[in-house]
UniProtKB/TrEMBL annotation:
Signal peptide: none annotated. Gene3D superfamilies: HAD superfamily/HAD-like (3.40.50.1000), Putative phosphatase, domain 2 (1.10.150.240). It comes from the Bacteria. PANTHER family: PHOSPHOGLYCOLATE PHOSPHATASE. Coiled coil: none annotated. InterPro entries: HAD-like_hydrolase_sf, HAD-like_sf, HAD-SF_hydro_IA, HAD_2, HAD_sf, PGP-like_dom2. This is HAD-superfamily hydrolase, subfamily IA, variant 1.
Length: 225
């Protein structure tokens, strides 16, 4: 029985690769550094930001980049340019909650990168029961141990959870931890044939399809129910 739906943030709950690319290049410009090409951003999209940036901009001073990034990101959030969750995705979360399932987020972002989503007045507050990020987990994706804290805190078993994500790393983390995995292909950043088929339980073209996909998985895991 599927009791919990765990959702990735970037390019799953909201489409962020393109806007993140613009944001990071704005920060690089402010630092007097040349812009990165989109292909380089896509090549390691999904990695923790401070691990990816030395590959995107070799020689970058991360101590200078970090504070500037958070300053610029704050402006983008205020201006509604990043982390905008579409109404239809919020409606899908509502349907999952109404079906009796717990909804949580698990992301590779750090706590400062996700802090605005933890605010009491955020649109997610009434819809999710927890957010797991690099600040409150010991391991990050694609390590299957990224789910350790979530499973320990909730008391759920892996077969009671499904993870919804957009990358092969999401799939291998979930599969290695024993969770079902739904590949969300809405961003167009990844194709289904890039995933290890061993770890993909289902795929969806757009996030709102998650409701029906979870229902199908629930029936498949409990055929007599």
């Amino acid at each position: 029985m599927i009791k919990a739906v765990v959702v990735d943030v970037d390019d799953t709950l909201c489409l962020t690769e393109a806007t993140s690319f613009e944001l990071e290049n704005e920060v690089l410009a402010a630092m007097g550094r040349p812009p990165m090409p989109r292909s380089l951003h896509l090549a390691n999209w999904g990695e923790p930001l401070l691990e990816a940036m030395p590959k995107r901009s070799p020689g970058i001073d991360l101590e200078q980049f970090g504070p500037l990034f958070h300053e610029f990101m704050g402006r983008h959030i205020t201006e509604g340019r990043i982390d905008v969750i579409p109404p239809e995705n919020l409606a899908a979360l509502d349907e999952l909650v109404l079906s009796g399932r717990t909804v949580m987020l698990l992301t590779s972002r750090t706590e400062p990168e996700i802090r605005h989503m933890l605010a009491p007045d955020h649109v997610l507050t009434s819809r999710i029961s927890g957010i797991y990020h690099r600040g409150n987990t010991r391991h990050g994706k694609p390590d299957p141990r990224a789910f350790d804290e979530l499973l320990t805190h909730t008391g759920l078993s892996p077969d009671q959870c499904v993870y919804v994500g957009d990358s092969p790393g999401d799939a291998s983390a979930a599969g290695g931890a024993g969770l079902a995995f739904i590949a969300c292909l809405q961003s167009g950043v990844r194709r289904l044939d890039e995933f290890d088929e061993r770890w993909v339980t289902a795929s969806i073209a757009a996030f709102p399809e998650v409701v029906a996909a979870v229902e199908r998985l629930g029936k498949a895991s409990n055929p007599a129910g």
